[in-house]
Amino acid sequence: MDFDNLKRLNEARLARKAAVLVTDLAEGGDRLVVEGETVPGPLGEEIVERFRSGKSGSVEIEGRSVFLNVHLPPPRIVVIGAVHISQALYPMAAIAGYDMTIIDPRTAFATPERFEGVDLVADWPEDVLSSRPLDRYSALVAVTHDPKIDDFPIAAALRAGCFYVGALGSRKTHAKRVERLKAEGFSDAEIGRISAPVGIDIGAATPAEIAVAVLADVIQAFRRRSLDGAGSAAA
Q1: What is the pLDDT of residues 134-155, one digit of tens each?
Q2: Which parts of the chain are coiled coil (predicted)?
Q3: Cys staple from 125: which of 60, 89, 153, 156, with CB 3.0 to 4.6 Å?
Q4: Which of 79, 196, 88 is closest to 134 using CA atoms?
Q5: Domain ranges in the chain?
């Protein structure tokens, strides 16, 4: 790999940005494409698909054999609320390859005994997220039912462009949440990104079933996420 490309790749990793190293298999030259950069034509279209799938591999592009080495930041799920749903979601998320953090200031809920081995933080979300900010490779799942705890991280997730934002609650609860977010200046389009009630509608009734619905929703959102032009053909 070219030294400049290696340097740029390391910078992208530190910034939690995706990148694809494109190597010409015939000539041996390479180039690095970082998300947000535009590549025209079929190569750009292929890079977009690789950003979504995360899969590396060789491909024929306009008569040339190239290898696409894909580097994605590890996707993570940040759950607000140390509740039964969170207990069920953690092992499922780990199996699916997602790092997971649970944040809850309620120390009666956020105990090591209830969440053994989990990255658990018993503090207010605004304090935690100031040092561990959300990003485009984060999913935010708010499940406390308490606006004093849930509202700040939901707003932070929308501002950070998280690939998934979900919140537990009835339609009446969400309607009140929408009013509060509009008062903070969020548009209908921004608020419309929130999955509420949280998770895919599978008729879930138990905490474990809700956790399945949430994880399925997160995975779907990650694989279908907007790349904002990363690697896409020029307009």
Answers
A1: 999 999 999 999 999 999 999 9
A2: none
A3: 153
A4: 79
A5: 3-71, 76-223
User: What's the CA gap between 119 and 38, in Å, rounded?
Assistant: 37
Higher pLDDT, 28 or 233: 28
Closest C-alpha to 197, from 226, 174, 222 = 174
- pTM value is 0.86
Identity at 65, one-letter amino acid code: S
CATH superfamily label, 76-223: NAD(P)-binding Rossmann-like Domain (3.40.50.720)
Alpha helices by DSSP H, listed for the chain, are 3-14, 41-53, 84-95, 125-131, 147-160, 171-183, 188-191, 207-223
- pLDDT tens string 66-82: 999 999 999 999 999 99
Tokens of 99: 């790092």
